[in-house]
Amino acid sequence: MEAFSVRNSSCKVNDSRNESSETEYEETFFPWPLTVILSFMCLLISAVNGLVIILIHKKKTLRTPTNMFLASLATSDLLSGLVGIPLALICLTSFTRYFLIVCVLSTIFIRFTAISSVCNVLLIACDHYIFIIHQMRYHSLVSNRRGIAAIVAIWLIAFAASTIQMSWHSFDEETLTTIDEETESIDIKYSLACIAFFFAFPLILMCYIYGNIFYISFKRHQTDRKLNKDLRQRFRPQRHEWRGRSVLLITLIIFAGCWSPYFLTVLDEHTESIDFQLPLWVQRLLVFLNFVPAMLNPILCTLAKKDFRKAFKEVILRRESSYLSDANVNFHAASQRIAKKRG
């Protein structure tokens, strides 16, 4: 449990384990099959998020403010896979002389990517809300300059919030293993602030945003039923609209289900005692839950969009869009007819 606590938020470790107990801990807490699975998640996260960034880089048509926010989220998730998971694996499975340093780095970096991902998801939700509520003024409200400013602000906030703990900690072995009451009290307040500002507040705001979006969709559906007499025309676009809303709902569920354990276990090391300790299977599950959003975010938020699917076919699969293909066929047919007439 100590290594898991360090990896999450505490920057503390108990040095009372002897060599035999360390070996037993390494074998029982995170055995090699789970290491293989987490390594596979690392590759998958890197692949899907790297694909999103490549598509936006290759296709100028994708460089919109909304897709800039998605690229920022993909960058955060990519860092989580490329750097966060390897650091976590080393912290969970290694007991070398650099164990404490790696666990501290893992703690800070995973917190950094977690906060940046949460803020990016919230930014995407706000962008979607503005598009729905203020559709006519969207392009004046959400410009490229404002979008870049918002992204820069998110990364600065994430960096400051994740590294500020270093200001009252001295990261040497003696300090990490024995923390005084004053430092412990500051850590608890810091953990509560992280939970409030980077989980509770974003979750409440996202529930409000998506609740309003679903309410507006329902009201529009009622209006369509009154104005449109053709049932087929009425329901086809509505089904498409609700498919998009269902993606938002799934995103919200993933946000709450995967990030709540992470931010709640931030306080675990401050309250853990001999009488209460999380079961081993729960600790293992929490390790994987930390990285599930990084794997699903690009699939739900990005690759499910029509413009990204089209760009994927053109850039990766080398398929032209149907419009361009039809245009080329018509052009070649016309060229052949002209050549025959001249002949």
From TrEMBL:
Residue stretches making up the G-protein coupled receptors family 1 profile domain: 48-301
Subcellular location: Cell membrane
Keyword Membrane: yes
Xref: InterPro entries: GPCR_Rhodpsn, GPCR_Rhodpsn_7TM, TAAR
Keywords from the UniProt entry: Cell membrane, G-protein coupled receptor, Membrane, Receptor, Transducer, Transmembrane, Transmembrane helix
GO MF annotation list: G protein-coupled receptor activity
Cellular component GO terms held in the UniProt record: plasma membrane
Record Gene3D superfamilies: Rhodopsin 7-helix transmembrane proteins
Transmembrane segments: 32-56, 68-92, 98-126, 147-168, 188-216, 246-265, 285-304
Primary localization class, coarse: membrane
Source taxon at top rank: Eukaryota
Topology relative to the membrane: Multi-pass membrane protein
Keyword Transferase: no
Name of this protein: G-protein coupled receptors family 1 profile domain-containing protein
Organism: Pocillopora meandrina
